[in-house]
Amino acid sequence: MDDLPRAHRRSDVELEPCANVPSTSPDDEGIADVPLLLPFHRHIANEMLQEDGLCVLGTGMGQARVAAALLAAQEKRDAKMGAQNNMLIVLGASETQREGVDTVLQQLSAKQEPSRFVSTEYTSEARNAFYAEGGILHFTTRILVVDILTKKLPIATVSGVVVLNAERVSENSGEGFSVRLLLEGAAELDRKSISIWGLSDSPHRLVGTFGAVEKVMKALYARRLYLWPRFKAEVHESLPKEVLEPCVVEVSQPLTPRMQAIQDGLWDVMKACLKELRRVAKGTLDTSDIDTDDTCGLFRDVEEQLWRQIRGARHTVGTKTRQIVRDIGTLRRLVGHLLRLEPVVFLKLLETLRAAEGISTVWLYTDAAHHVFEFSRRRVYQMKRQHTLSAGQACEKDKQGELRPLPAKMHPIFEPLPKWNLVKEIIEEARSELRRGPLAQASRKSRETDRTLKKERPRVHHPILIAVQDSATACQLYAVLKFGADKVLEKSYQSYQKEKNSSVRSQGGKNGGQRQQKRKAEALPIVSATPISATAVNSIVIEAAAAQEAAQALEYQEMNDHSDEVGSFDDVYFHVLGDRSEVLLDISPIFIVMHDPDLAFLRQVEIYKCEQRGRPLRLYFVQYESSIEEFKYRASVERETSAFERLIRGKATMLVPVSGDRSQVVPRSAATEDQFAADNLVASHRSGGWLSISTKKARPRIVVDIREFMSTLPAVLHQQNFEIQPITLEVGDYVLSSDICIERKSISDLYGSFNSGRLFTQMEAMTKNYKIPVLLIEFDANETFGLTSSADLGDTINAQHITSKIALLILHFPRTRIIWSRSLNATADIFQALKSNQDDPDPTVAAQVGVPEEDQHQKDISEDLYNQAAIDVLRKLPGVTNNNYRQVMSTFKSLAEMSAASKEDLAKVLGGMQNAKRLHDFLHAECPRSEYIRTS
Q1: Of 307, 330, 342, 897, which is least surrounded by CB within 10 A?
Q2: CATH assignment at residue 899
Q3: Which domain holds residue 116?
Q4: Residue 141 and residue 62 in one domain
């Protein structure tokens, strides 16, 4: 480790570019002056209490704090008005964000019990009890929409809705659908409109497409846009430099020469791929914003932009262009893995990539790629001959009796990641200062203050918090700190040698490698026939990296089980970045080591320091010098600043097409309104003329399976004036009439259903119970309206191709009708046409279709007695089929009781030992777990 580049420190780090934007602040009347909230947080809450709207904050600037402030203030308003049982609804929050909101709420109010999260875990009766009690409720949009449509949720008691992560909201999303239903219900009750507050801390996602922020505001029925960037004047006053700068220590760690060579090689390959892409994609893709002279493709998500274009013009894009885009994504991930993975794991990842994609990937054969592989091997081992032997001893005889040199041997080179030793030094420095430095006395005062306030503090009084990118990095770093870098690398190298030797033995024979390459080559065309999606590309790299990290976690577990304690790290806590939890309030650290740069977490530290000014705190900002992570961090700051500048300019000319009183909450299409116009007119007198009568024909009804509310089609149907009846269906997804039943499949669902055989069972049930079974294949409006392209079709018929599977499906079920829908709106129009001259379905009858007669009574009460989430899990387990899952529900009270049953008991319930063995083996399979990440 002595030959590693030394890190240099700089404590006067400029965290972000600053600019003064003048603004005025109203009096803080709505929110009490509590220490936990900074002035700009109270300012935001008071503005939104005066007039609700959409608030866009900088990344990590306290979205949960603003949400908690709004909820606490609205609760006080309701209490003053005598509405003790009013409900406040929170949508769009992740699990860690819900915990963060509860943490802040407990500080703002006297209530100590956490708010409830209403999900499928609760029965209908339990949810009704929650609604009667009122208070703050977190919802999944699926449950909220279903309970509103079934009249179980009393809209009259809802006083406000907070939507977190509002950048994801659209008119057809679950959050947008929920807001529309709530406002529609409030309008029908002739009550005051419900307050809707939207919060977002991802400004770059609101400027990525045309009119993105306007669409979000339209979905939330918001008329005001509040912008709070980091460079706003009020934020600067709340986060003064004189408080923040002394506690920040920037530590820049140079890369090792071999790592620098690998990074340069990957950059060269990336530039070559970008240049080649501009050449081959000319006329098919827009590559005008791609600069091949720098490394923009490495830290800007060029890959996602390109795949978005390819999805919209898939038939015109060649195979070579798609492969280059995949290669760009592969290279971006490899650069990130270089800085994070152990040298041995990174080398195994490269070898896996070359073995899997070597036939179709051209960049692997470039000179730059050769340097990448060569220096990756040099980080792990070197091939050396025994020069100390004499000339005769250094040779051996072959089968012909001739002398030949002895083969070179692998000599391991344990090159650790440079940050490992750096983090260890920082921890030693922190412990030294806590023992005899000025922070020791300050920390004792903090503990006395905590005892005075009667707050429960963690078990460790001087925790050291290490913020890492993911759990795999936390496991890796914990093992290094506990056992030492040399021991960890030696263990990885031994595992690498075992895998390499076993691979050589398994391939065996002269043509073993050729046969293996041939099998891989035959498997590649099948991959090209699958639908294109940005999340599916580079699956080899993603899965290989995940497999390597899982293997490393098992190795760390083995080391922990068979080794003595090397060091004590009870005072070290690991925090995974990206979960947006209030870990700082829970841990109250003295030292924070930011192992991986993250803008959101840095903002959280800033806010925490200014809120807790009496507490000692030091932040070590660790990053590799002149590396991809440094470029990414700078790019994230610049991207956010640019996004706010665009939002500020757009706000000046923004048109918001929403009426002030929100009276028109459900837009009706012209075709739907005109359909029954003739039915509502009668002759006024003998000479002619028509008079509109007051009665209206009821909206056409569609019965929708509850599971379909995870998609956006029910929201579109409701917007097109359909009456939606949610219920649990055994057969089909949508029932349009007593004769028509529809099974809806997106493109990805279609492939998955064919592969699992589920579609065959579904079509068999529909054909048996309905006169007109329909398979609806629905495309994305942003993708090409075509199942396959000409490049995906071979010269011969392939039974595994999607078109062949559809043909076989029609042959088996000739009464099946297939409908191809271009988009969600096209599906709504098709449903409108199919509903012509058709009766409305009976929800009770539709729910009984496919249910055995002896189980129909159970079906009627299943909504109240059974846990729908547990039923969904049960039906996905191996060995559980549509024919036996009801028997399982009748025999066992819970999944836990079922898992404790023997194979013989399961065989009696499942109808055979084969299904029982599959289920029993699945439930009792060993699951690797890690003990190295401790949470507060």
Answers
A1: 897
A2: 1.10.150.20
A3: 39-228
A4: yes
Q: Indicate whether 110 and 69 sit together in one domain.
A: yes
Of 181, 204, 228, the last residue of a domain is: 228
Q: Which of the 8 DSSP states describes residue 594?
A: E
- 843 and 821 inside one domain: yes
CA torsion 261-262-265-267 (nearest 10°) is: -110
DSSP state of 722: P
Residues 418/480, Cβ–Cβ less than 8 Å: no
* Residue 828 φ/ψ, nearest 5 degrees: -60, -40
How far separated are the first and last CA of the chain, in Å rounded? 33
877 shares a domain with 832:
no
Residues 779 and 901 in one domain: no
Q: How far apart are CA 62 and CA 78, in angstroms?
A: 25
Domain count, the chain: 3
* Pick from 61, 223, 132: nearest CA to 656: 223
Counts for the chain of helices (H) and strands (E), in that order: 37, 25
Cα–Cα distance measured from residue 890 to residue 886, given in angstroms and rounded to the nearest whole number = 6
Alpha-carbon span 236 to 43, nearest angstrom: 13
Contact 726, 704 (CB under 8 A): yes
Q: Which residues contact 639 (CB under 8 A, 6 or more apart)?
A: 204
Provide the CATH number for the domain around residue 753.
Answer: 3.40.50.10130
Asked whether the beta carbons of 603 and 16 are under 8 A apart, the reply is no
| 792 & 892 share domain | no
Task: Convert the pLDDT of each residue in 293-335 to its tens digit.
Answer: 555 445 556 777 777 777 767 666 777 888 888 888 888 889 9
Highest-confidence segment of 296-300, 424-428, 496-500:
424-428
The rounded percent of the chain whose pLDDT value lies above 90 is 34
- From 202, 228, 254, give the residue that closes a domain: 228
* 193 and 62 in a common domain: yes
Question: Would you say 789 and 833 are in contact if contact means Cβ atoms under 8 Å apart?
Answer: no
3 state DSSP class of 682: strand
Cα gap 226→612, rounded to integer Å: 27
3-class DSSP string for 493-547: HHHHHHHHHHHHHHHCCCCHHHHHHHHHHHHHHHHHCCCCCCCCCCHHHHHHHHH
H-helix or E-strand spanning residue 363: none
For the segment 346-402, what is each residue's pLDDT rounded down to a tens digit? 999 998 888 876 666 778 888 898 999 999 999 998 877 655 445 555 555 555 555
How, if at all, do strands 158-163 and 87-91 pair?
A: parallel
d(CA 72, CA 63): 14
Apex 882 CA angle, 713 and 841, nearest 5: 45
Give the Cα separation of 275 and 224 in Å (integer): 44
Model confidence over 861-913: pLDDT tens digits?
444 556 777 887 888 888 888 778 878 888 888 888 888 898 888 988 888 88
Q: What does 777-813 look like in DSSP terms, one character per residue?
A: EE--TTS-S-S--GGG--SS--TTSHHHHHHHHHHH-
- pLDDT tier for residue 462 given thresholds of 50, 70 and 90: low
Q: How far apart are CA 747 and CA 592, in angstroms?
A: 46
Are the C-beta atoms of 222 and 658 separated by less than 8 Å?
A: yes
Element (H, E) at 724: strand 723-727
pTM for the model stands at 0.78
734 touches 709 (CB < 8 A):
no
Query: Which amino acid, residue 868?
Result: Q
Query: Would you place residue 108 in the very low, low, confident or very high pLDDT band (cuts 50, 70, 90)?
Result: confident
> Could you give the CA distance from residue 716 to residue 721 in angstroms, rounded to a whole number?
9
Which pLDDT score, from 0 to 100, does residue 455 have?
45
